[in-house]
Amino acid sequence: MEAQVRKDWSVMSEIELVYKNKIKASERPLATDSEKAYRLFASVWNWDSIELREEFKVLFLNNGRRVLGWLPVATGGISAVSIDQRLMFAAALRGAATGIILAHNHPSGNLTPSTADLVFTREIRLSGEILKIELLDHLIIGPQRNQYLSLADEGELV
């Protein structure tokens, strides 16, 4: 038995691009360097569970490096987190972001990027180039306040 295909296109599902801006452009925080980016991430991080599981978050920025918004992309286990790039870039496109800053934590406190961290960062940078969304930084955050490593500062985004 063959499935029937609708011919009335007026009943198609609609996909809507929505960005709910709550802050005036002039009042949006700036993320011009790794320290400012870290402070923004620290303000939304769950510090009660930072030693228990990895989390992955992203900041979306405009051309002036003002923050359009942030997204908690994924929560994982003690030593890994799985990220779906498509969801992250869908949100970036929805918000008309021209730049992104990534962050994930290492519950162990060891800020050395793993091979998987570096490979993933490279993949995101290359995917972003296709979409004209620049990867500005990727922070690895430790469980102690003010403990982070910037892959941009370390020259790992080249």
Automatic annotation (TrEMBL):
Source organism, top-level taxon: Bacteria
InterPro entries according to UniProt: MPN, RadC_JAB, UPF0758, UPF0758_CS
MPN domain segment(s): 30-157
A matching Pfam family: RadC
Single GO term (MF): metallopeptidase activity
UniProt keyword terms in alphabetical order: Hydrolase, Metal-binding, Metalloprotease, Protease, Zinc
GO process annotations (BP): proteolysis
Record-linked PANTHER family: DNA REPAIR PROTEIN RADC (PTHR30471), UPF0758 PROTEIN YEES-RELATED (PTHR30471:SF3)
The protein's name in its UniProt record: DNA repair protein
Taxonomic source organism: Chitinophaga barathri
